[in-house]
Amino acid sequence: MPEEVQKVLTFEIERDGNTAVVKCQGRLVAGTTEEFQRKVKLLLPETKVVVVDLAELAYVDSTGLGTLVRLYASARQQGCEFKLLHLGKQLRNVLKMTNLLSVFGETEDHGINIA
User: Which residue numbers delimit the STAS domain (predicted)?
Assistant: First the structure.
């Protein structure tokens, strides 16, 4: 049972004008990505910037990484910026290994302040 608890992903969405901030907590892994992807994708047509705050995310597997890449691609197709905030060491390493770190970049580098 403790393994199942560790696999839980929770997230909340905060809107501020044309920006949506998605605060994630837990693990973005196989079996937890479907609702996250669906709800974030619904934000794309009605926002200019989607910021995914990963400060409380413990782990991302290949399915979670694929979800972030698909959301990034969908956002670009709809003219929406898609940024990751507070990359943890594990995700930063995965993004470096897959040459995706420069694609996602952190929002602090782009002048977006999240209060």
Answer: 9-115
Cα–Cα nearest to 65, from 102, 85, 92, 89: 92
Flag whether pLDDT at 85 surpasses 70. Answer: yes
pTM (predicted TM-score): 0.85
Fold assignment, 2-98: Transcription Regulator spoIIAA (3.30.750)
| Domains in the chain: boundaries | 2-98
Q: Which residues are within 8 A (CB) of 28 and not within 5 positions of it... i.e. 6 or more apart?
A: 9, 36, 57, 59, 60, 61, 63, 64, 67, 68
Q: Which residues on neighbouring strands pair with residue 49, listed in sequence order?
A: 19, 81
Owner of token pair 């809107």: 15
| Mean per-residue pLDDT over the chain, rounded | 86
Query: In angstroms, how far is the first alpha carbon of the chain from the final one?
Result: 36
Looking only at the bridges linking them, the beta strands covering 81-85 and 19-28 are unpaired
Torsion of CA 23, 57, 103, 83, to 10 degrees: 10
pLDDT of residue 113: 45
